[in-house]
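Supplementary material to the annual report.
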Amino acid sequence: MTDVSTNGYKSGSNLERVLAAGHFAVTGELGPPKSHDADVIRRKTQMLKGYVDAANITDNQTAIVRMSSIAAGAILVQEGLEPVIQMTCRDRNRLAMQSDLLGAAALGIKNVLCLTGDHQSFGNHPTAKNVHDLDSLQLVRMVKDLRDESKFQCGEEIKGGGPGFFIGAAANPFGDPFEWRPYRLAKKVAAGADFIQTQLIYDIPRFKEFMKRVVDMGLHEKVAILAGVGPLKSSGMARYMRDKVPGMIVADEYVDRMVAAVAGIPKEDKAARRDAWRAEGIKICIEQIQQLMEIEGVAGVHIMAIEWEAAIQPIVEGAGLLPRPEVNGR
Amino acid sequence: MIVAEQKPLAEIKAMLAGYQKVLVVGCGTCVTVCFAGGEKEVGILASALRMATRLDGNGIDLDETTVQRQCEWEYIDPLADRLEDYDALLSLGCGVGVQTLAERFPSKRVLPGLNTSFMGLPTEQGVWEERCQACGNCILDMTGGICPIARCSKQLLNGPCGGSQNGECEINPEIPCAWQLIWERMSALGLLEQLMEVQPPKDWSTSRDGGPRRIIRDDLRLPEDYRDT
Ligand code: SF4
Ligand code: SF4
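Predicted assembly:
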């Protein structure tokens, strides 16, 4: 067994310690490459290290085959950046999930985010069979039972104790039915989630409404809620997310600001437009973080700068969240 | 009922290549009701194939028949006497019908003319929707009579997922989100409380995952000495 000395922590992960110490946590996202190139991971690690408390590694995000989140996570461990491995229910049944969780723990991984997974019809293997043996809630419960009961899902005992993960789940405050969303979060907490990372937020008033319900239900005291943000890259992306992405709401204000950011820059000057967009995207993101920090029940932010990991540093810095705290074990 | 669709003519034609005399066998039950393989469709398909193969210069001689139910021995047994003349049977039954014919008449080539799609119902004229996946352990009591196994694209038992919006499933705006429907129904019934329980992992062993399924009812079975099969 690698460790038993978690000193009263569930996992002893850096993310858990930062949250337990009452700091406003920062996590980021790191997308593995569509190849076996470990250097991509190492390069991206350098962009995030020191700026986030832990980095999520996506698991075949949008159903596109990429390097395994656990393998990439092991590289992060070697490089000294704490990973949160994402695990979807789309590609694996309960046997494969548990075996991968044991493997992940053996490689020094301490955080796992349990997800349903985007449908394979969105990805690059739309003819694949999907699994969904468990749903994300059942996965949360299974990881909790591995940890707290030292039991496999079938009830069999894990000799020598189960792997101690800090267990995350996702929440989409913008999906429908809207009234049901806080209850769905409550179910995830009941299933055993320790932290929640939300879907990208581009509608702060609606998120506030959601958080009010969450706080009224007392859920923020049982689970650490990290609000999801991400810098917009262009006005086209903002419009696309507003109009086309299921379960996403983007306030017109942000779309308008992204449009205005390139006003006066000729269409041909692609580089200037790109820079102007990116600067505005980062600016909006920083403002959002500052607004989110004021909302009761928000314990941190999760920054998703997809294929733009270099944006993390200016965002965290701009939001006044540096240096990241160092919390040693109790 | 079982809902099926006819295969494209070109595919059926390719399947029949090399056969001279073919019997098209329709079924008078589910596939008649869904306009895929009843007497009428048998007639239309047979004429289309006659014409198409004749144009190709190798006209197939096709006869037509429709049994009341292709998935039971007693309804197909009377075909036995007339099969000698045929090189192949083209079944317009569902997958069960095709296999019933193939099992009963092992010396005959039996080919499928339909794609069996799902168990469902017509929701309006010309529209059929899936309703049940035969998971072998029905949970409709917990979900207000709406099946998340058949109707949620991710078979969630504690849904909805994050992609549900405006009542639509994330994979296709034409597909209603099953969990939106479940939520509405349970809410109208005043039973939302029941959706708060965390449903444990499903036992899929009663589903296809447990291997091909079989039901034996000793109360109905004939004593061993009297069984035909
Ligand atoms: S729960 Fe199972 S048996 Fe019941 S309708 Fe759904 S798939 Fe069919
Ligand atoms: S949108 Fe609704 S039906 Fe579609 S996968 Fe999600 S919960 Fe299931």
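Residues 27 and 218 of chain B are 30 Å apart (CA to CA).
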